[in-house]
């Protein structure tokens, strides 16, 4: 009690003004650095085939800050300019972008009231004609909030994939089943694919040597991802159980796509575009086949096919949305692909956990058989010795 009284007496009384290091902690210092500005090199501008001029309203700009954010440019740099200000940034190197925008390349301009000079945005033509960029214009606060929400979705999908990989790694350490190790490889491949797709390969600094080869990285990782995606969907939907001889075709698809992915670095842009279209066609055919097999297996009473049909659901939503030209898919294509990938990995983990449950059930049944007399059904000598 005396010690408590002494501590209370020794407690310093708070001064009128808060003291640095005691009542608060201030980090950093005042800066004289200007707003981030990085002009495009002439060689970069020469590759920009698409140029958009965002015209001012009829009465001119209001004089309030205007934020412009560009999403979905998967390769090359984006140029945003207004007057003498110009920003040029790449999705695969966060150091080249305004730090207020992380999911896209953005800039905040403050045109004078009544000014009619347009905001000019340019970018390289996308590898796929339908994969057009999305531009958002508005007040800085809502535009930045939307940018942050996109970043959180992209980072969360990658975090879930990493968590599933760690869980499967622990499952492999417990069961020594190589399927768990294969699932870890699947998760890692999809993590790399999502990182390049969403630009997190360059955040906060580039940790993959993407640079100006983003199209090659994306097509190569797409080939590797499909090499794993299609056989897994086939197995989840019961194709492997219904037609055991199809394993030879699964191996052919797997290693064929791996070989295609390994050859991507030596392809030119025309061949790269053709390969990207071929991979998309193969993906559509695989989804159709897996859906047909899953429905047929479910009709024949194979309840395990539900996991495969569940894994197919988001992919078919994207296929239908692409066919009807849904605006939400154009605006949030990257996030939609990552969410579909995350759902697929979760359904594959669900099927893997079902397999783990069956393995444990078989182990318990084998132990019970080993401890039971075949004639009487009573515990045998082995069980009695263990009890003693």
Task: Record the SSE blueprint.
Layout lengths: L1 H9 L31 H5 L3 E5 L11 E6 L5 E6 L2 E6 L14 E5 L9 E5 L10 E5 L1 H36 L2 H21 L15 H23 L2 H4 L4 H17 L5 H31 L5 H20 L2 H5 L1 H38 L10 H7 L1
Antiparallel strand pairs: 1-6, 2-5, 2-7, 3-4, 3-6
Helix pairs in contact: 3-4, 3-11, 4-5, 4-11, 5-7, 5-8, 5-9, 8-9, 9-11
CATH level 1 class label of the largest domain: Mainly Alpha
Number of helices, counting only DSSP H or I runs of 4 residues or more: 12
- Number of structural domains: 2
Order of helices and strands: HHEEEEEEEHHHHHHHHHH
CATH topology description of the largest domain: Rhopdopsin 7-helix transmembrane proteins
Shape, please? globular
Please give a structural write-up.
With 388 residues, this protein is of the alpha+beta class. It has two domains: 35-139, Jelly Rolls (Sandwich); 144-361, Rhopdopsin 7-helix transmembrane proteins (Up-down Bundle), CATH 1.20.1070. 56% of the residues lie in helices and 10% in strands. It has helices spanning 2-10, 42-46, 140-175, 178-198, 214-236, 239-242, 247-263, 269-299, 305-324, 327-331, 333-370, 381-387; strands at 50-54, 66-71, 77-82, 85-90, 105-109, 119-123, 134-138. Strands 1-6-3-4 form a four-stranded antiparallel sheet, with no helix packed on it. A three-stranded antiparallel sheet has the order 5-2-7, covered by helices on one side. Helix 4 (178-198) packs antiparallel against helix 11. The longest helix has 38 residues, at 333-370. The model has no long low-confidence stretch (mean pLDDT 82).
